[in-house]
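Page 47, continued from p. 46.
Same chain as before, 430 aa.
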Amino acid sequence: MVAILSPSKSIRNSFCYNENKVKEGVATLIHAENYPKNLADMTENMRLEMLQKLAAQNPNAKVNSMHVTLNFDPLEQFSTEKMVEIACVYMDKVGFGNQPYLVYQHFDAGHPHLHLVTTNVEAGGTLIDLHHLGIRKSEPARKKIEIDFGLVKAEDQPKHDYKLKPACSAKVIYGRTDSRRAIHNVLTALLDSYNYGSLNELNALLGQYNVRADEGSEGSRVFKNGGLLYRILDECGNPVGVPIKASAFYNKPTLKNLEKKFLKGAVTKQQYKTRVKNTIDLALRKPGMDSLNKLMDALQSSGIHTVLRQNKDGIIYGITYVDHKSKSIFNGREIGTNYSAKGILDRFLPKQIPAPSLLNGKEKPLPTNPANVPNPPAEKGFGVSSSTPSQDNPASLLQELMEPEHGVDYIPYHLSGKKKKKKKRKINNN
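Result:
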């Protein structure tokens, strides 16, 4: 038997992950321990509220959820009763025997396995110590259970990838699965895992999974009422299917609730700004870094996904960096003007051609690139570049060479003019 412990800061995420598996028909809820009612007499909300109310007794806890998977050898096909017995013995030995917890049996892998969902907050607000829980308690419990139940020992099993997979391991594809469930899986995995300070920054992340949060146009009823819709996008970024209200999801990702995350994320992500800035600087200093596409590829290899915001004419007016390593999202101008869309484009565009700029919310289109235009001067923080006169225009070069140099007007006193003659002192011989 192999036991995997996954502490987290969201009971709802762990709970909804398993409940969605049940709805998809690839899992079954087989047991509820230490609940006041029998499993058959409880609704989905009742099961979740029991865990949430207990976790709320310690609002300062950074981690309030424990998600455990117990994985068995493919040849070990046990009855439901034996699966429940093993789960209960394990939870008792690792210190969660008195906690309310749910046991799900999953059927979406090549080996039998259980998912256990509970909270590490005890009645009264005391926290169960999770420090080195795997080494201190889980490993001894696993080995004892293997002996007591005659299980195949973990050391004797061939190596498998038992790692708990994220709820959204792939992009949402319209029509492949239920739209609401597919969007919910993405939101469950991402909303509490990343630091973002605005809806645009959140959409830069969601867009990678073909999902977008939409406030509606300014004159729409959704916008006036402060509502939010979630849409599935096609590969071109266009919305497809029917939008779903935020209030229709379990975790209630409404605009009002997201605004609380914006405030918190805007502060938390600041500690990772330097990493993103330095990564961009290093990418820009690489030899041959002469285009925006090359920069985006270099950042992608460092774990930073670059999202360009464009208008209907394809003019780039904004840039957002999604750092998957620090799980933080930054608007380019937030890092610095040199990292905004204009700052980045100015590096790759000739100096005669202005980069796209915003004027009263409207973008100035880029003219076509004329031939033989010198490189732009270097910008602070982006290395060194030089500007030289065109070799293909001898007339302009000759004119430049024939122009007189312009000296400075000020000359230090000790370098100017002739020295004053000293007056001879007359010697009085009288």
